[in-house]
Design brief:
The protein is mostly beta strands. 1% of the residues lie in helices and 46% in strands.
Length: 637
Protein backbone atom coordinates (compact mmCIF):
# COMPACT_ATOMS: atom_id res chain seq x y z
CA UNK A 1 0.00 0.00 0.00
CA UNK A 2 1.66 3.19 -1.17
CA UNK A 3 1.45 6.44 0.77
CA UNK A 4 2.04 9.75 -0.97
CA UNK A 5 1.88 13.51 -0.58
CA UNK A 6 0.35 15.84 -3.15
CA UNK A 7 2.45 18.92 -3.54
CA UNK A 8 1.42 21.20 -6.39
CA UNK A 9 -1.80 21.69 -8.27
CA UNK A 10 -1.36 23.34 -11.66
CA UNK A 11 -4.14 25.73 -12.65
CA UNK A 12 -6.91 25.06 -15.07
CA UNK A 13 -6.19 26.47 -18.51
CA UNK A 14 -9.53 28.23 -18.66
CA UNK A 15 -9.53 31.99 -18.14
CA UNK A 16 -13.28 32.27 -17.73
CA UNK A 17 -13.79 30.32 -14.54
CA UNK A 18 -12.49 30.19 -11.03
CA UNK A 19 -9.76 27.71 -10.36
CA UNK A 20 -7.24 26.81 -7.69
CA UNK A 21 -3.51 26.36 -7.29
CA UNK A 22 -2.01 24.35 -4.46
CA UNK A 23 1.57 25.27 -3.59
CA UNK A 24 3.87 23.22 -1.39
CA UNK A 25 5.64 25.40 1.17
CA UNK A 26 8.62 23.66 2.76
CA UNK A 27 9.56 24.12 6.39
CA UNK A 28 12.16 26.86 6.77
CA UNK A 29 12.83 29.43 4.03
CA UNK A 30 11.55 29.15 0.45
CA UNK A 31 10.31 31.39 -2.37
CA UNK A 32 6.78 31.10 -3.74
CA UNK A 33 4.56 32.74 -6.36
CA UNK A 34 1.12 32.14 -7.82
CA UNK A 35 -0.34 32.32 -11.31
CA UNK A 36 -3.83 32.81 -9.86
CA UNK A 37 -5.44 36.22 -9.51
CA UNK A 38 -7.00 35.67 -6.07
CA UNK A 39 -10.67 36.43 -5.55
CA UNK A 40 -9.44 38.17 -2.42
CA UNK A 41 -5.77 39.06 -2.67
CA UNK A 42 -5.42 40.17 0.95
CA UNK A 43 -2.43 38.22 2.26
CA UNK A 44 -4.10 37.66 5.63
CA UNK A 45 -7.08 35.94 4.00
CA UNK A 46 -4.96 33.94 1.55
CA UNK A 47 -2.90 32.39 4.36
CA UNK A 48 -5.71 32.08 6.89
CA UNK A 49 -6.07 28.29 6.57
CA UNK A 50 -2.35 27.62 7.28
CA UNK A 51 -1.58 30.64 9.45
CA UNK A 52 -0.35 28.53 12.37
CA UNK A 53 2.54 27.29 10.20
CA UNK A 54 3.60 30.72 8.91
CA UNK A 55 6.50 32.49 10.64
CA UNK A 56 7.15 35.44 8.30
CA UNK A 57 6.70 36.53 4.66
CA UNK A 58 8.84 39.18 2.90
CA UNK A 59 8.65 40.98 -0.43
CA UNK A 60 11.54 42.51 -2.39
CA UNK A 61 10.96 45.95 -0.87
CA UNK A 62 11.46 44.85 2.74
CA UNK A 63 7.76 44.73 3.57
CA UNK A 64 6.72 41.88 5.86
CA UNK A 65 3.73 39.91 7.03
CA UNK A 66 4.60 38.69 10.54
CA UNK A 67 1.46 37.14 12.06
CA UNK A 68 2.94 36.52 15.51
CA UNK A 69 3.44 40.25 16.05
CA UNK A 70 0.47 41.48 14.03
CA UNK A 71 2.67 43.17 11.42
CA UNK A 72 1.51 43.47 7.82
CA UNK A 73 3.07 45.96 5.43
CA UNK A 74 2.73 43.69 2.36
CA UNK A 75 -1.05 43.99 2.20
CA UNK A 76 -1.81 41.98 -0.88
CA UNK A 77 -0.33 39.26 -3.11
CA UNK A 78 0.41 40.43 -6.65
CA UNK A 79 0.66 38.19 -9.72
CA UNK A 80 4.16 38.36 -11.26
CA UNK A 81 5.83 38.95 -7.91
CA UNK A 82 7.45 36.32 -5.72
CA UNK A 83 7.80 36.27 -1.95
CA UNK A 84 10.19 34.80 0.57
CA UNK A 85 8.48 32.79 3.30
CA UNK A 86 9.61 31.01 6.44
CA UNK A 87 7.44 28.18 7.75
CA UNK A 88 7.32 26.22 10.99
CA UNK A 89 6.16 23.10 9.12
CA UNK A 90 5.65 21.95 5.57
CA UNK A 91 2.17 22.91 4.40
CA UNK A 92 0.09 23.37 1.26
CA UNK A 93 -1.20 26.83 0.35
CA UNK A 94 -4.39 26.85 -1.73
CA UNK A 95 -5.04 29.97 -3.80
CA UNK A 96 -8.52 30.51 -5.28
CA UNK A 97 -9.34 32.80 -8.17
CA UNK A 98 -8.95 33.21 -11.93
CA UNK A 99 -6.01 32.13 -14.05
CA UNK A 100 -3.69 35.06 -14.76
CA UNK A 101 -2.70 35.94 -18.32
CA UNK A 102 0.54 34.09 -18.94
CA UNK A 103 1.80 37.06 -21.00
CA UNK A 104 1.34 39.59 -18.18
CA UNK A 105 4.06 42.28 -18.27
CA UNK A 106 6.36 42.11 -15.26
CA UNK A 107 8.41 45.20 -14.34
CA UNK A 108 11.99 44.43 -13.28
CA UNK A 109 14.09 47.09 -11.59
CA UNK A 110 17.82 47.35 -11.96
CA UNK A 111 19.39 45.15 -9.27
CA UNK A 112 17.66 42.41 -7.34
CA UNK A 113 14.01 41.42 -7.86
CA UNK A 114 11.72 38.58 -6.79
CA UNK A 115 9.93 37.27 -9.87
CA UNK A 116 6.93 34.96 -10.00
CA UNK A 117 6.27 32.23 -12.59
CA UNK A 118 3.09 32.48 -14.69
CA UNK A 119 3.05 29.66 -17.29
CA UNK A 120 0.92 26.56 -16.78
CA UNK A 121 3.70 23.99 -16.76
CA UNK A 122 7.46 23.63 -16.45
CA UNK A 123 9.66 25.31 -19.04
CA UNK A 124 13.39 25.76 -19.68
CA UNK A 125 14.82 28.84 -17.97
CA UNK A 126 17.12 29.60 -20.91
CA UNK A 127 14.15 29.68 -23.33
CA UNK A 128 12.13 31.95 -21.08
CA UNK A 129 14.82 34.59 -20.46
CA UNK A 130 16.37 34.52 -23.96
CA UNK A 131 14.70 37.84 -24.86
CA UNK A 132 16.48 39.69 -22.01
CA UNK A 133 19.53 37.47 -21.56
CA UNK A 134 21.91 40.42 -22.13
CA UNK A 135 20.39 42.15 -19.08
CA UNK A 136 20.25 39.09 -16.82
CA UNK A 137 23.17 38.99 -14.41
CA UNK A 138 22.05 36.00 -12.34
CA UNK A 139 18.92 34.09 -11.27
CA UNK A 140 18.65 31.98 -8.08
CA UNK A 141 16.05 29.55 -6.77
CA UNK A 142 15.41 28.74 -3.11
CA UNK A 143 17.57 25.61 -3.20
CA UNK A 144 20.84 27.34 -4.08
CA UNK A 145 20.68 26.59 -7.81
CA UNK A 146 21.64 29.39 -10.21
CA UNK A 147 21.39 30.50 -13.82
CA UNK A 148 24.45 32.65 -14.67
CA UNK A 149 24.41 33.37 -18.40
CA UNK A 150 27.77 35.17 -18.52
CA UNK A 151 29.57 32.03 -17.37
CA UNK A 152 27.16 29.51 -18.99
CA UNK A 153 26.22 28.09 -15.62
CA UNK A 154 22.72 26.65 -15.30
CA UNK A 155 21.78 24.36 -12.40
CA UNK A 156 18.14 25.53 -12.29
CA UNK A 157 17.27 24.12 -15.74
CA UNK A 158 13.44 24.21 -15.37
CA UNK A 159 11.11 26.86 -14.00
CA UNK A 160 8.07 25.47 -12.17
CA UNK A 161 4.58 26.72 -11.23
CA UNK A 162 4.31 27.75 -7.58
CA UNK A 163 8.01 28.58 -7.33
CA UNK A 164 9.57 32.03 -7.17
CA UNK A 165 13.04 33.22 -8.13
CA UNK A 166 15.57 35.92 -7.26
CA UNK A 167 16.73 37.75 -10.37
CA UNK A 168 19.39 40.47 -10.75
CA UNK A 169 19.25 42.60 -13.90
CA UNK A 170 21.52 45.33 -15.22
CA UNK A 171 18.80 47.88 -16.01
CA UNK A 172 15.13 48.63 -15.59
CA UNK A 173 13.09 46.62 -18.08
CA UNK A 174 9.79 44.97 -18.89
CA UNK A 175 9.57 41.20 -19.16
CA UNK A 176 6.88 38.68 -20.11
CA UNK A 177 7.04 34.92 -20.34
CA UNK A 178 7.13 33.19 -23.71
CA UNK A 179 4.04 31.08 -23.28
CA UNK A 180 4.25 29.82 -26.87
CA UNK A 181 7.47 27.99 -26.00
CA UNK A 182 5.49 25.59 -23.84
CA UNK A 183 3.87 22.99 -26.08
CA UNK A 184 1.09 21.15 -24.34
CA UNK A 185 -2.19 19.48 -25.15
CA UNK A 186 -5.32 20.82 -23.50
CA UNK A 187 -7.75 18.22 -22.16
CA UNK A 188 -11.01 18.61 -20.27
CA UNK A 189 -10.99 16.73 -16.99
CA UNK A 190 -13.50 16.05 -14.24
CA UNK A 191 -13.62 14.03 -11.05
CA UNK A 192 -17.15 13.42 -9.77
CA UNK A 193 -20.11 11.05 -9.80
CA UNK A 194 -20.02 9.27 -6.45
CA UNK A 195 -20.15 9.61 -2.69
CA UNK A 196 -17.65 10.16 0.13
CA UNK A 197 -15.79 12.66 -2.03
CA UNK A 198 -13.71 13.93 0.89
CA UNK A 199 -11.80 10.61 0.67
CA UNK A 200 -10.97 11.04 -3.02
CA UNK A 201 -7.65 12.39 -4.31
CA UNK A 202 -5.60 11.91 -7.45
CA UNK A 203 -2.32 12.99 -8.96
CA UNK A 204 -0.41 12.94 -12.23
CA UNK A 205 3.35 12.33 -12.35
CA UNK A 206 5.60 12.68 -15.38
CA UNK A 207 8.23 10.18 -16.51
CA UNK A 208 10.75 11.71 -14.10
CA UNK A 209 8.36 10.96 -11.23
CA UNK A 210 7.78 14.68 -10.73
CA UNK A 211 4.30 15.58 -9.55
CA UNK A 212 2.77 17.96 -12.06
CA UNK A 213 -0.92 17.97 -11.13
CA UNK A 214 -3.19 16.80 -8.33
CA UNK A 215 -6.78 17.21 -7.32
CA UNK A 216 -9.80 16.01 -5.37
CA UNK A 217 -13.54 15.60 -5.99
CA UNK A 218 -15.71 17.19 -7.12
CA UNK A 219 -13.49 19.06 -9.56
CA UNK A 220 -13.42 19.91 -13.25
CA UNK A 221 -11.45 22.08 -15.63
CA UNK A 222 -8.84 21.97 -18.36
CA UNK A 223 -5.37 20.52 -18.00
CA UNK A 224 -2.32 21.03 -20.23
CA UNK A 225 -0.09 18.00 -20.74
CA UNK A 226 3.02 17.89 -22.91
CA UNK A 227 3.54 14.91 -25.20
CA UNK A 228 4.72 11.88 -23.26
CA UNK A 229 3.55 9.26 -20.80
CA UNK A 230 2.34 9.93 -17.28
CA UNK A 231 1.41 7.95 -14.20
CA UNK A 232 -2.09 8.67 -12.85
CA UNK A 233 -2.41 7.93 -9.12
CA UNK A 234 -5.92 7.46 -7.73
CA UNK A 235 -6.22 7.26 -3.97
CA UNK A 236 -8.91 6.65 -1.39
CA UNK A 237 -8.02 7.74 2.13
CA UNK A 238 -10.41 5.28 3.81
CA UNK A 239 -9.46 2.29 1.69
CA UNK A 240 -12.88 1.26 0.38
CA UNK A 241 -12.64 2.59 -3.18
CA UNK A 242 -14.06 5.67 -4.83
CA UNK A 243 -17.73 4.80 -4.34
CA UNK A 244 -18.76 5.66 -7.90
CA UNK A 245 -16.47 8.66 -8.44
CA UNK A 246 -14.59 8.69 -11.76
CA UNK A 247 -11.66 10.81 -12.89
CA UNK A 248 -12.03 11.51 -16.61
CA UNK A 249 -9.10 13.03 -18.49
CA UNK A 250 -9.68 13.74 -22.16
CA UNK A 251 -12.34 11.03 -22.33
CA UNK A 252 -10.33 8.34 -20.55
CA UNK A 253 -11.78 7.22 -17.18
CA UNK A 254 -9.80 6.33 -14.05
CA UNK A 255 -11.10 5.25 -10.65
CA UNK A 256 -10.04 3.52 -7.45
CA UNK A 257 -11.46 0.10 -6.59
CA UNK A 258 -11.41 -1.73 -3.29
CA UNK A 259 -9.07 -4.42 -4.59
CA UNK A 260 -7.98 -5.85 -1.24
CA UNK A 261 -11.57 -6.29 0.01
CA UNK A 262 -10.85 -4.32 3.18
CA UNK A 263 -13.20 -1.41 3.76
CA UNK A 264 -11.26 0.45 6.45
CA UNK A 265 -7.60 -0.44 6.07
CA UNK A 266 -6.35 3.08 5.41
CA UNK A 267 -5.16 4.84 2.26
CA UNK A 268 -5.07 2.76 -0.90
CA UNK A 269 -3.50 4.01 -4.14
CA UNK A 270 -3.75 2.58 -7.64
CA UNK A 271 -1.55 3.61 -10.58
CA UNK A 272 -2.49 3.86 -14.26
CA UNK A 273 -0.62 4.93 -17.40
CA UNK A 274 -1.75 7.91 -19.48
CA UNK A 275 0.07 8.80 -22.71
CA UNK A 276 -0.42 11.99 -24.71
CA UNK A 277 -1.46 13.00 -27.22
CA UNK A 278 -4.57 11.04 -26.36
CA UNK A 279 -5.98 8.93 -29.15
CA UNK A 280 -9.47 7.88 -28.14
CA UNK A 281 -10.63 4.43 -29.10
CA UNK A 282 -14.35 4.18 -28.37
CA UNK A 283 -16.01 1.02 -27.17
CA UNK A 284 -17.13 -0.86 -24.09
CA UNK A 285 -14.44 -0.60 -21.40
CA UNK A 286 -16.12 -2.67 -18.67
CA UNK A 287 -14.50 -6.09 -18.31
CA UNK A 288 -17.75 -7.45 -16.87
CA UNK A 289 -19.66 -6.69 -20.06
CA UNK A 290 -20.32 -9.22 -22.79
CA UNK A 291 -18.91 -6.88 -25.45
CA UNK A 292 -15.82 -5.68 -23.54
CA UNK A 293 -13.31 -4.13 -26.01
CA UNK A 294 -9.73 -4.66 -24.87
CA UNK A 295 -8.48 -1.90 -27.19
CA UNK A 296 -11.00 0.75 -26.12
CA UNK A 297 -9.91 3.50 -23.76
CA UNK A 298 -13.11 5.58 -23.79
CA UNK A 299 -16.48 4.07 -22.95
CA UNK A 300 -19.19 4.82 -25.52
CA UNK A 301 -22.11 3.57 -23.44
CA UNK A 302 -22.66 0.43 -25.52
CA UNK A 303 -21.78 -2.11 -22.80
CA UNK A 304 -24.21 -4.97 -22.51
CA UNK A 305 -24.35 -7.34 -19.58
CA UNK A 306 -25.64 -10.80 -18.75
CA UNK A 307 -29.18 -10.87 -17.45
CA UNK A 308 -28.67 -10.02 -13.79
CA UNK A 309 -32.30 -10.31 -12.83
CA UNK A 310 -34.81 -12.93 -11.77
CA UNK A 311 -38.57 -12.41 -11.82
CA UNK A 312 -38.22 -8.63 -11.82
CA UNK A 313 -38.64 -6.49 -14.91
CA UNK A 314 -37.52 -2.93 -15.53
CA UNK A 315 -40.48 -0.81 -16.65
CA UNK A 316 -38.58 2.48 -16.81
CA UNK A 317 -35.92 4.51 -15.14
CA UNK A 318 -35.44 8.22 -14.50
CA UNK A 319 -31.89 9.47 -14.73
CA UNK A 320 -30.80 12.32 -12.47
CA UNK A 321 -27.86 14.61 -13.17
CA UNK A 322 -26.77 14.22 -9.54
CA UNK A 323 -26.33 11.47 -6.96
CA UNK A 324 -29.55 10.28 -5.32
CA UNK A 325 -30.27 8.47 -2.07
CA UNK A 326 -33.55 7.31 -0.55
CA UNK A 327 -37.04 6.78 -1.95
CA UNK A 328 -40.61 6.64 -0.67
CA UNK A 329 -43.93 6.43 -2.51
CA UNK A 330 -47.19 8.35 -2.57
CA UNK A 331 -50.48 7.66 -4.29
CA UNK A 332 -53.86 9.29 -4.88
CA UNK A 333 -56.96 7.79 -6.43
CA UNK A 334 -55.56 8.20 -9.93
CA UNK A 335 -51.84 8.77 -9.63
CA UNK A 336 -48.68 7.30 -8.16
CA UNK A 337 -45.49 9.18 -7.34
CA UNK A 338 -41.90 8.44 -6.40
CA UNK A 339 -40.52 10.74 -3.71
CA UNK A 340 -36.76 10.95 -4.15
CA UNK A 341 -34.02 12.27 -1.92
CA UNK A 342 -31.02 13.61 -3.80
CA UNK A 343 -27.74 15.02 -2.60
CA UNK A 344 -29.05 18.48 -3.44
CA UNK A 345 -32.71 18.30 -2.46
CA UNK A 346 -36.08 16.60 -2.84
CA UNK A 347 -37.70 15.47 -6.11
CA UNK A 348 -41.21 14.25 -6.93
CA UNK A 349 -41.56 11.97 -9.99
CA UNK A 350 -44.98 11.15 -11.46
CA UNK A 351 -45.01 7.44 -12.39
CA UNK A 352 -48.74 7.21 -13.12
CA UNK A 353 -47.68 6.18 -16.62
CA UNK A 354 -44.99 3.78 -15.42
CA UNK A 355 -42.97 3.71 -18.63
CA UNK A 356 -42.91 7.52 -18.83
CA UNK A 357 -41.75 9.00 -15.48
CA UNK A 358 -41.94 12.80 -15.28
CA UNK A 359 -40.48 15.09 -12.63
CA UNK A 360 -43.21 17.29 -11.16
CA UNK A 361 -41.02 19.53 -9.03
CA UNK A 362 -37.76 19.80 -7.14
CA UNK A 363 -37.06 21.58 -3.84
CA UNK A 364 -33.44 22.49 -3.30
CA UNK A 365 -31.74 21.85 0.04
CA UNK A 366 -28.26 21.70 1.50
CA UNK A 367 -25.87 19.32 -0.24
CA UNK A 368 -25.63 16.08 1.72
CA UNK A 369 -25.32 12.34 1.14
CA UNK A 370 -28.27 11.44 3.39
CA UNK A 371 -31.98 12.23 3.00
CA UNK A 372 -34.98 10.27 4.25
CA UNK A 373 -38.65 10.64 3.33
CA UNK A 374 -41.95 9.44 4.77
CA UNK A 375 -45.59 10.48 4.26
CA UNK A 376 -48.64 11.20 6.40
CA UNK A 377 -51.98 12.01 4.78
CA UNK A 378 -51.15 14.32 1.84
CA UNK A 379 -47.83 15.50 3.24
CA UNK A 380 -44.25 14.39 2.66
CA UNK A 381 -41.77 14.77 5.51
CA UNK A 382 -38.09 15.01 4.57
CA UNK A 383 -35.01 15.10 6.78
CA UNK A 384 -31.30 15.05 6.07
CA UNK A 385 -28.14 14.25 7.98
CA UNK A 386 -24.93 16.29 7.98
CA UNK A 387 -27.03 19.36 7.17
CA UNK A 388 -29.10 22.09 8.83
CA UNK A 389 -32.34 21.84 6.84
CA UNK A 390 -34.46 20.63 9.76
CA UNK A 391 -37.81 19.06 8.85
CA UNK A 392 -39.13 19.84 5.35
CA UNK A 393 -42.91 19.39 5.09
CA UNK A 394 -44.32 19.34 1.53
CA UNK A 395 -48.03 19.53 0.65
CA UNK A 396 -48.45 16.92 -2.08
CA UNK A 397 -51.87 18.28 -3.03
CA UNK A 398 -49.91 21.04 -4.73
CA UNK A 399 -47.88 19.35 -7.47
CA UNK A 400 -46.31 22.65 -8.44
CA UNK A 401 -44.03 22.26 -5.43
CA UNK A 402 -44.81 25.74 -4.16
CA UNK A 403 -46.46 24.72 -0.89
CA UNK A 404 -43.98 23.59 1.68
CA UNK A 405 -42.83 24.41 5.19
CA UNK A 406 -39.45 24.23 6.90
CA UNK A 407 -39.37 23.50 10.63
CA UNK A 408 -36.13 23.79 12.61
CA UNK A 409 -37.80 24.13 16.00
CA UNK A 410 -37.01 20.59 17.13
CA UNK A 411 -33.89 19.58 15.21
CA UNK A 412 -31.63 20.67 12.35
CA UNK A 413 -30.73 17.20 11.16
CA UNK A 414 -31.89 13.61 11.48
CA UNK A 415 -30.63 10.48 9.77
CA UNK A 416 -34.00 8.77 9.37
CA UNK A 417 -37.66 9.15 10.23
CA UNK A 418 -40.68 6.87 10.55
CA UNK A 419 -44.38 7.76 10.81
CA UNK A 420 -46.65 5.23 12.48
CA UNK A 421 -50.26 4.42 11.75
CA UNK A 422 -51.43 6.92 14.38
CA UNK A 423 -49.73 9.99 12.97
CA UNK A 424 -46.65 10.18 15.17
CA UNK A 425 -43.30 10.96 13.58
CA UNK A 426 -40.15 9.37 15.02
CA UNK A 427 -36.83 11.08 14.18
CA UNK A 428 -33.57 9.16 14.60
CA UNK A 429 -29.86 9.78 14.66
CA UNK A 430 -29.16 13.50 14.42
CA UNK A 431 -29.95 16.27 16.86
CA UNK A 432 -32.25 13.62 18.26
CA UNK A 433 -29.34 11.31 19.06
CA UNK A 434 -31.71 8.47 19.86
CA UNK A 435 -35.37 9.06 19.06
CA UNK A 436 -37.59 12.15 19.15
CA UNK A 437 -41.38 11.83 18.80
CA UNK A 438 -43.49 14.51 17.10
CA UNK A 439 -47.29 14.64 16.88
CA UNK A 440 -48.70 15.36 13.40
CA UNK A 441 -52.38 15.00 14.28
CA UNK A 442 -53.30 18.51 15.35
CA UNK A 443 -51.65 20.26 12.40
CA UNK A 444 -49.54 18.23 9.95
CA UNK A 445 -47.66 21.39 8.93
CA UNK A 446 -46.89 22.40 12.51
CA UNK A 447 -45.90 19.32 14.56
CA UNK A 448 -45.64 19.36 18.33
CA UNK A 449 -43.12 17.46 20.39
CA UNK A 450 -44.24 14.58 22.57
CA UNK A 451 -41.05 13.10 24.02
CA UNK A 452 -37.59 11.65 23.36
CA UNK A 453 -35.05 9.08 24.52
CA UNK A 454 -31.33 9.61 23.84
CA UNK A 455 -29.96 6.67 25.82
CA UNK A 456 -28.62 5.02 22.65
CA UNK A 457 -27.81 6.29 19.18
CA UNK A 458 -30.44 5.06 16.74
CA UNK A 459 -29.59 4.99 13.05
CA UNK A 460 -33.06 3.95 11.90
CA UNK A 461 -36.25 2.46 13.28
CA UNK A 462 -39.89 1.61 12.73
CA UNK A 463 -42.96 1.44 14.96
CA UNK A 464 -45.88 -0.96 15.06
CA UNK A 465 -48.55 -1.23 17.75
CA UNK A 466 -46.74 1.19 20.08
CA UNK A 467 -43.48 -0.79 19.96
CA UNK A 468 -40.41 0.89 18.48
CA UNK A 469 -37.81 -1.34 16.87
CA UNK A 470 -34.60 0.67 16.62
CA UNK A 471 -31.31 -0.13 14.85
CA UNK A 472 -28.08 1.18 16.34
CA UNK A 473 -25.08 1.09 14.03
CA UNK A 474 -22.82 2.36 16.78
CA UNK A 475 -23.66 -0.24 19.44
CA UNK A 476 -24.36 -3.04 16.93
CA UNK A 477 -27.77 -4.09 18.25
CA UNK A 478 -31.47 -3.58 17.84
CA UNK A 479 -33.25 -1.91 20.74
CA UNK A 480 -36.91 -2.32 21.62
CA UNK A 481 -38.90 0.57 23.13
CA UNK A 482 -42.36 0.85 24.62
CA UNK A 483 -43.76 4.04 23.07
CA UNK A 484 -47.34 3.70 24.27
CA UNK A 485 -46.64 6.80 26.37
CA UNK A 486 -45.26 9.11 23.71
CA UNK A 487 -43.96 11.51 26.34
CA UNK A 488 -41.80 8.82 27.92
CA UNK A 489 -40.34 6.18 25.56
CA UNK A 490 -38.98 3.31 27.66
CA UNK A 491 -36.37 0.74 26.63
CA UNK A 492 -37.66 -2.76 27.21
CA UNK A 493 -34.96 -4.97 25.69
CA UNK A 494 -32.12 -5.15 23.18
CA UNK A 495 -30.16 -7.75 21.27
CA UNK A 496 -26.79 -7.65 19.46
CA UNK A 497 -26.41 -8.60 15.80
CA UNK A 498 -23.29 -10.63 14.89
CA UNK A 499 -20.73 -8.30 13.34
CA UNK A 500 -22.47 -5.17 14.62
CA UNK A 501 -23.36 -2.15 12.43
CA UNK A 502 -27.10 -2.82 12.79
CA UNK A 503 -28.41 -0.58 10.02
CA UNK A 504 -32.17 -1.03 9.83
CA UNK A 505 -34.89 -3.38 11.06
CA UNK A 506 -38.52 -4.15 10.23
CA UNK A 507 -41.05 -6.20 12.18
CA UNK A 508 -43.28 -8.87 10.62
CA UNK A 509 -47.01 -8.30 10.37
CA UNK A 510 -47.69 -10.69 13.26
CA UNK A 511 -45.08 -8.99 15.43
CA UNK A 512 -43.16 -12.23 16.08
CA UNK A 513 -40.18 -11.85 13.72
CA UNK A 514 -37.75 -8.98 13.29
CA UNK A 515 -35.64 -8.64 10.15
CA UNK A 516 -32.39 -6.68 10.17
CA UNK A 517 -29.67 -5.50 7.80
CA UNK A 518 -26.04 -4.72 8.59
CA UNK A 519 -24.30 -2.08 6.50
CA UNK A 520 -20.81 -3.50 6.12
CA UNK A 521 -18.92 -5.57 3.57
CA UNK A 522 -20.25 -9.13 3.73
CA UNK A 523 -23.23 -8.23 5.93
CA UNK A 524 -26.43 -10.26 6.12
CA UNK A 525 -30.18 -9.96 6.18
CA UNK A 526 -31.19 -11.77 9.37
CA UNK A 527 -34.39 -12.98 11.00
CA UNK A 528 -34.97 -13.07 14.76
CA UNK A 529 -37.69 -14.64 16.85
CA UNK A 530 -38.88 -11.75 19.05
CA UNK A 531 -42.11 -13.32 20.25
CA UNK A 532 -40.48 -13.13 23.69
CA UNK A 533 -38.39 -9.96 23.68
CA UNK A 534 -36.49 -11.19 26.73
CA UNK A 535 -35.48 -14.43 25.05
CA UNK A 536 -34.58 -13.45 21.49
CA UNK A 537 -33.19 -16.03 19.06
CA UNK A 538 -31.66 -15.60 15.61
CA UNK A 539 -33.46 -17.86 13.14
CA UNK A 540 -31.66 -17.49 9.80
CA UNK A 541 -29.42 -15.27 7.71
CA UNK A 542 -29.01 -14.76 3.98
CA UNK A 543 -26.89 -12.83 1.49
CA UNK A 544 -27.86 -11.63 -1.98
CA UNK A 545 -27.93 -13.45 -5.28
CA UNK A 546 -24.46 -12.70 -6.68
CA UNK A 547 -21.43 -14.87 -6.12
CA UNK A 548 -19.74 -12.07 -4.20
CA UNK A 549 -19.78 -12.52 -0.44
CA UNK A 550 -18.60 -8.97 0.30
CA UNK A 551 -21.66 -7.07 -0.96
CA UNK A 552 -23.21 -4.55 1.46
CA UNK A 553 -26.93 -4.76 2.33
CA UNK A 554 -28.75 -1.50 3.08
CA UNK A 555 -32.48 -1.32 3.91
CA UNK A 556 -35.04 -4.10 4.17
CA UNK A 557 -38.85 -3.70 4.22
CA UNK A 558 -41.56 -6.20 5.15
CA UNK A 559 -44.58 -6.56 2.88
CA UNK A 560 -46.77 -9.56 3.61
CA UNK A 561 -44.53 -12.63 3.83
CA UNK A 562 -41.77 -11.02 1.76
CA UNK A 563 -38.75 -8.79 2.30
CA UNK A 564 -37.82 -6.18 -0.28
CA UNK A 565 -34.27 -5.00 0.24
CA UNK A 566 -31.94 -2.45 -1.35
CA UNK A 567 -28.56 -4.13 -1.64
CA UNK A 568 -26.00 -1.64 -3.02
CA UNK A 569 -23.98 -3.25 -5.88
CA UNK A 570 -26.41 -6.20 -6.17
CA UNK A 571 -29.43 -3.95 -6.73
CA UNK A 572 -32.80 -4.86 -5.21
CA UNK A 573 -33.84 -8.29 -3.89
CA UNK A 574 -37.04 -10.06 -2.82
CA UNK A 575 -36.94 -12.74 -0.12
CA UNK A 576 -39.67 -15.18 0.77
CA UNK A 577 -39.78 -14.97 4.57
CA UNK A 578 -42.94 -16.99 5.10
CA UNK A 579 -40.73 -19.39 7.06
CA UNK A 580 -38.40 -17.04 8.99
CA UNK A 581 -36.13 -19.99 9.77
CA UNK A 582 -35.57 -20.57 6.06
CA UNK A 583 -35.17 -17.30 4.16
CA UNK A 584 -35.27 -17.86 0.38
CA UNK A 585 -34.35 -15.28 -2.24
CA UNK A 586 -36.93 -15.50 -5.02
CA UNK A 587 -36.34 -12.40 -7.18
CA UNK A 588 -33.78 -9.70 -7.81
CA UNK A 589 -32.78 -6.95 -10.23
CA UNK A 590 -29.29 -5.51 -10.57
CA UNK A 591 -29.70 -1.74 -10.87
CA UNK A 592 -25.95 -1.15 -11.31
CA UNK A 593 -24.37 -3.92 -13.39
CA UNK A 594 -21.22 -1.84 -13.76
CA UNK A 595 -20.44 -2.46 -10.08
CA UNK A 596 -19.86 -5.67 -8.19
CA UNK A 597 -18.87 -6.79 -4.73
CA UNK A 598 -17.95 -4.42 -1.93
CA UNK A 599 -18.76 -0.72 -2.05
CA UNK A 600 -21.37 1.80 -1.04
CA UNK A 601 -22.58 2.65 -4.53
CA UNK A 602 -25.54 1.20 -6.36
CA UNK A 603 -29.01 0.67 -4.88
CA UNK A 604 -29.70 2.77 -1.78
CA UNK A 605 -33.47 2.73 -1.36
CA UNK A 606 -36.48 0.50 -2.08
CA UNK A 607 -40.23 1.06 -1.82
CA UNK A 608 -42.70 -1.85 -2.33
CA UNK A 609 -45.99 -0.38 -1.05
CA UNK A 610 -47.60 1.25 -4.12
CA UNK A 611 -51.19 0.10 -4.82
CA UNK A 612 -50.20 -0.88 -8.36
CA UNK A 613 -47.65 -3.38 -7.06
CA UNK A 614 -44.79 -1.56 -8.78
CA UNK A 615 -41.53 -1.44 -6.87
CA UNK A 616 -39.31 1.64 -6.72
CA UNK A 617 -35.55 1.46 -6.36
CA UNK A 618 -33.09 4.34 -6.18
CA UNK A 619 -29.61 3.67 -7.48
CA UNK A 620 -27.03 6.24 -6.37
CA UNK A 621 -25.43 6.45 -9.79
CA UNK A 622 -28.10 5.07 -12.17
CA UNK A 623 -31.24 6.87 -11.02
CA UNK A 624 -34.80 5.82 -10.19
CA UNK A 625 -35.87 2.35 -11.36
CA UNK A 626 -39.56 1.47 -11.74
CA UNK A 627 -39.87 -2.31 -11.55
CA UNK A 628 -42.53 -4.98 -11.70
CA UNK A 629 -42.60 -8.51 -10.29
CA UNK A 630 -45.15 -11.31 -10.28
CA UNK A 631 -44.62 -11.58 -6.52
CA UNK A 632 -46.46 -8.30 -5.98
CA UNK A 633 -49.69 -10.29 -6.41
CA UNK A 634 -48.69 -12.30 -3.33
CA UNK A 635 -47.50 -9.41 -1.17
CA UNK A 636 -50.83 -8.86 0.54
CA UNK A 637 -51.99 -12.49 0.77
Amino acid sequence: MKKYIFIIILPFCSFAQNTTQNILLDSGWSIFSTHIIPNNNNIVDIFDSIINDVIIIKDINGNVYWPEFGLNSIGSIEVGNAYQIKMHNESILTVYGQQADCNTIIDLNMGWNLIGYLPLSDSFIEDQFQSIVENVLIIKDDSGNIYWPEFSINSITNLSPGAGYQIKVSSDLEFSYNCNSIICNEYNYSCDGGTWQSEVSWAIYNENETLIYSGTAPEEGVICLEDGCYSVYTSDSYGDGWQGNVLNIGGIPFTNENLDGCSSCGPETQIFELCTPINLVYGCTDELAINFNLNANSDDGTCTYPENNLDMELISYYDFDETINDVWGYSTNNNEYALIGTNEGFSVIDISVPDLPVEMFFIEGQNTTWRDIKTWENYAYIVCDNCNDGLLIVDLDDMSGQTYFINTEFFNKAHNIFIDENGFLYAFGGNPYGVMILNLNNDPTNPTIEGSNDTFYLHDGMVKSDTLWGASTSSGEFIIYDVSDKTNPIIMSSHPTPGGVTHNCWISNDGNTLFTTQEYSGGYIRSYDVSDIYDIEMLDQIQSWSQFTDVVPHNTHVIGNYLVTSYYTDGITIIDASNPSNLIEVAYFDTSPQYQGDGYFGCWGAYPYLPSGLILATDRQNGLHVLSTPYSELFND
